[in-house]
Amino acid sequence: MYTSELTKYPSRADIGQTSRVLVVEDEELIREMLVLALEEEGYAVVTATDGRSAVEYLKNCEPSSGELPFDLVVLDLMLPQINGLDICRLLRHQGNPVPILMLSAKGSETDRVLGLEVGADDYLTKPFSMRELVARCRALLRRQRLSTLPQIPILQYKEVTLYPQECRVLVRSQEVNLSPKEFRLLELFMSYARRVWSREQLLDQVWGPDFVGDSKTVDVHIRWLREKLEQDPSHPEYIVTVRGFGYRFG
Ligand code: CA
């Protein structure tokens, strides 16, 4: 039996805008339950009842077509005309990276392994609960979002390495604790190595244009930063004073 035991999770927020899901299933009852469950979750669902129309749908939304691509395909294994395994193979052969959740009535290990081998991302054996299905779909969509987030490059100069996404800094292979302002200051310096910054520019970039205070604040933070980075803070090799102008990195 297919039970619809949908529970509302607050996780739609991290998925962002409406995801488009293609459901390929020839059994009407299951197809309808899938559509209900996925629409309930907030996805835009398109259905195909056989292999050939599924391939058509997928072809029609290739990047060149101007149609929005699907974010996920829920694909039954046993289908009229072209089966799920062949569709999967075809998509991967064409270099289409859309996440695929494969469904199968057969519970055998071989089917599961074969499904994953031809490029499915996940596999569910019938009967399954709609709650399980929705959880798997959500996980695949989230994984896809994460993999498309732009990676911010790691910054490195001599023996200082800054990991922007992790907010970590290593100095001579040792982790150092920086305050948020020190971190922003160093990140800015390292992003524009050798560029000379005036105190006002640094205040503007790191403290923001609304900051009311003295440009001495910058000098104080530079001193703290030097104590954490430099082997000899009185002869700095990383944060260098440029007389009459300000500071530069490297
Ligand atoms: Ca089927």
TrEMBL record:
Source domain of life: Bacteria
InterPro entries tied to this protein: CheY-like_superfamily, OmpR/PhoB-type_DNA-bd, Sig_transdc_resp-reg_C-effctor, Sig_transdc_resp-reg_receiver, WalR-like, WH-like_DNA-bd_sf
Residues with 4-aspartylphosphate modification: 76
Keyword DNA-binding in annotation: yes
Stated name of the protein: Response regulator transcription factor
Native organism taxonomy: Bacteria, Bacillati, Cyanobacteriota, Cyanophyceae, Nostocales
Species this protein is from: Cyanomargarita calcarea GSE-NOS-MK-12-04C
Record has Chloroplast as a keyword: no
Domain Response regulatory: 20-141
DNA-binding region(s) in UniProt: 152-250
